[in-house]
Specification:
Elements lengths: L2 E4 L9 H14 L7 H7 L4 H8 L5 H20 L11 H10 L3 E5 L4 H11 L5 E5 L11 H10 L6 E5 L2 H10 L2 E5 L6 H7 L3 E3 L2 H9 L3
Parallel strand pairs: 1-2, 1-4, 2-3, 4-5, 5-6
Length: 218
């Protein structure tokens, strides 16, 4: 058995525009100045309450929860209006096809909600590739290993049979905490040097190289 678990935003799709727009709207709804968008992009992958704590460290828990609720509302409104823009990164569709053909089982572990992930995968016609979907609705925020462990448990894979692929240090730390192999991608929201520092076993510069790195897994 070989299981490859992907992060979503920053790894499979580029959802930064919608994340930044929804975050700006959330802060505005609370009467707060919007955070720098560079900082917002760096929070992608965390659960919403954890992201709000990092973006507004002096805020109290009620403010963080309020921001998270406003973010959900703003993001849902964009989805309902049909204006979400979450394009697949170059080469991802072909990569998923190649991995499935090569016998890999595929999963997702993401800070998105169940509804948000389902919409994203359905929009791109790639939902059928994945046998396990783990989201922030049911697990602690990355880098806690719970969602990756749940992905492994759901299909009976061991850590030695599992590789986590992600674009942030949170993904890499989650993989290492679960005892799985960790491969970073260079096209997301954290720099390759940060992924290396977090303990990535390798960092892929493009989707074709990512396939090769996965096939080299012990």
């Amino acid at each position: 058995m070989r299981l490859a678990v992907f992060d979503c935003d920053g790894t499979l799709v580029d959802g930064q525009a919608d994340v930044c727009e929804a975050m700006d709207a959330a802060f505005a709804a609370q009467g707060l100045a919007a955070p720098d968008r560079h900082l917002t992009r760096r929070m992608v992958g965390l659960s919403l309450p954890e992201a709000m704590r990092k973006l507004l460290p002096l805020g109290d828990p009620a403010v963080h929860e309020g921001l998270a609720a406003h973010y959900r509302d703003a993001y849902r409104a964009r989805r309902t209006a049909g204006v979400l823009d979450e394009p697949l990164f170059e080469g991802i569709a072909a990569l998923l096809e190649r991995l499935s053909a090569a016998g890999w089982l595929l999963g997702v572990a993401t800070g998105k909600s169940d509804r948000g992930l389902a919409h994203c995968l359905a929009t791109h016609g790639i939902a059928g590739h994945f046998v396990t979907l783990q989201t922030a609705d049911r697990h602690p925020s990355k880098p806690h290993p719970a969602m990756l462990q749940a992905a492994m448990d759901s299909i009976g894979a061991t850590a030695a049979e599992t590789t986590m692929i992600g674009d942030t240090a949170y993904d890499i730390a989650m993989a290492r905490a679960a005892g799985a192999r960790a491969i970073g991608v260079a096209w997301g929201y954290h720099q390759p040097a940060e992924l290396d520092a977090a303990g990535a076993h390798a960092v892929a510069p493009d989707a074709a190289t990512l396939f090769d790195l996965l096939e080299m897994a012990p």
